[in-house]
Each structure stands twice: as structure tokens, then as C-alpha cells.
């Protein structure tokens, strides 16, 4: 299986002034993220505003980004949803394009029981040869996939890991202890990266790496190399920026921060809106205290 990378960025979807997907800017962003520390890119995940994208927009984004990176980094397609059949269809489209893996979110809204979750992921994995990463984010989906279900799913060869954004460190520890050898746990929350590494996790699917990817990569590498003191220092330094990126729903603060930093990714699609004045002021004040790694300007 291809090495997917320890630092994966959950890439925003750039929009133009008319609210349409800006595919050219998505390509520029993909290259810029790889140039500033990312090992790979998750395209059309939560940060990419996947619920507002059509299937056609998702497939084209995967194709454009895959063509742009040309093997310099991995491309993971956010092809999961609350509908098992639709998830299979989109994952098959992603496989045709040659992406490196699929990210499959825990079904939201319909609140399946644990056996339903098991069968959902088992069925999708059984209909693709792509490596599959489960995405557990109960703050958005309501439903939490528990450790026992994840451990069961880890026995399926092409279910290779989980993006864990539950914030439940006991659950995460039980997954790491019980899953098959080689099954990887990526943090799904930027503020949890170092604690999850300490539990035996592998890396992070990051929002913050749009802005400080070089620094996050250094933090991970320092920890892996045994320099926990410096890793912890970097982690503490970045925490105020982490907090500012989630004072309202992601990716509202992130897209605003990227624009004011010089990389224009447009606004968000409804029902997400621009940050209010107080939120924007907090973001700006926090940005002043941090070095931004993303190469800018991006537009000619």
C-alpha cells in the first residue's frame, strides 16, 4: 500500500466571486500545500465544504488535484456520505481517477447503530480496491463509531486507518491497542495531534496546515525523533492559532485567514457565511503572533 503520509491537509475548496468552484486556484493551492509541509491532501472533506458540492464538482476536483500534484504527494478523496450506495458510487469514481485513498465519514443525520456502521464501511471497502480511512467526527455527525466497531473494521485489509476527531482519548487508546498491526490513527483535531502521537497514533488530517504546515511537520518529526520537549513547545505555540480557527464553524475562520494572508480562496457557500467583526478581529490578532508558511501570493 502507498504511504499516505503523517501530515495530510484537509484542503479547502476555492470558490470564485460567483460562488463557483475555482479549479485553477484549487490546483495552485494543492501545490502550495505540498510546498509548505503537507505529505498529502484530503480533497472534498469537511473543510472542503463537501455537503455543498455536487458529485460532478467532487469528481472534477479529485481529477484536477491528482493531475496537479503528479505524485509529489498523496490525494485522498472524501467520497463518503450518509448514503451507502452513493458512497460506493463516488468511491468507484475516485478509484478510476487513480487517487491514493478514500476518506469515508461516519454517516450523519440518519444515526445508524454500531452494526449499521460496520456494514456500511464493510460494504464500501468491499466494492473498491482503494485504501479506506474511516472519519469519526461525532460533533458533526451526532453518531460516534466506537472502539470495538473500529477494531472489527481494522480486520478488513483495505480499511487502513481512522481520522479520529472524537476527542475521546480513552476510545482512541483502545483503538490503537486493539486494531490490527499497521492500522493507523490520524488525529482529526489539530489540538489533539501531540496527545494522539503520544498514545501511539500516526499523524494528523489537519486544518491548520493550510497556514503553518512547515511547523506542524516539524512538530511531528521532532516527536518521532524523540525530541518531545521541542515537539511540545511547537504544539503549545500553535494552540492559540488552533483555537482561533474553530471559534465558529470550520472553514469560515480558515478561509478568512487565508484571504487576509494573501492566498485568495474565496468565501464559503451557504449556509456558511463570513465571520462577524468580532470573530474577524480575533483571527487577525492571532495571525499577527504566528509565522505563516503558505506561499503567497497565489494569483497572477
Account of the protein in words:
By secondary structure, the protein is of the alpha/beta class. It has a single domain (7-228), classed as Aldolase class I (TIM Barrel). 45% of the residues lie in helices and 12% in strands. It has twelve helices and eight strands. The chain has helices spanning 23-35, 55-69, 84-97, 114-126, 138-141, 147-153, 169-178, 193-199, 209-224, 228-244, 252-260, 277-287; strands at 7-10, 40-43, 74-78, 101-105, 132-136, 159-164, 184-187, 203-206. It has an eight-stranded parallel beta barrel, surrounded by seven helices. α8 (193-199) links the parallel β7 (184-187) and β8. The longest helix is centred in the C-terminal third of the chain and has 17 residues, at 228-244. The radius of gyration is 18 Å and the shape is globular.
Secondary-structure blueprint:
Elements: E1 7-10, H1 23-35, E2 40-43, H2 55-69, E3 74-78, H3 84-97, E4 101-105, H4 114-126, E5 132-136, H5 138-141, H6 147-153, E6 159-164, H7 169-178, E7 184-187, H8 193-199, E8 203-206, H9 209-224, H10 228-244, H11 252-260, H12 277-287
Parallel strand pairs: 1-2, 1-8, 2-3, 3-4, 4-5, 5-6, 6-7, 7-8
Helix pairs in contact: 1-2, 2-3, 3-4, 4-6, 6-7, 8-9, 9-10, 11-12
- Bin the strand percentage: 5-15%
Q: Give the strand line-up of the largest sheet.
A: 1-2-3-4-5-6-7-8
Q: Bin the helical content.
A: 40-55%
Q: Please report the total strand number as a whole number.
A: 8
The arrangement of helices and strands along the chain is EHEHEHEHEHHEHEHEHHHH
CATH architect. name:
Alpha-Beta Barrel
Kindly report the average pLDDT value.
97
Radius of gyration: 18 Å
Q: Output the CATH homologous superfamily.
A: Aldolase class I
Q: Biggest β-sheet, characterized?
A: 8 strands, parallel, barrel
Poorly predicted regions? none
Structural class: alpha/beta
Number of helices: 12
CATH classification class: Alpha Beta
Looking at the structure, the CATH topology is TIM Barrel
The N- to C-terminal Cα distance equals: 38 Å
Q: How many distinct folded domains?
A: 1
Shape: globular
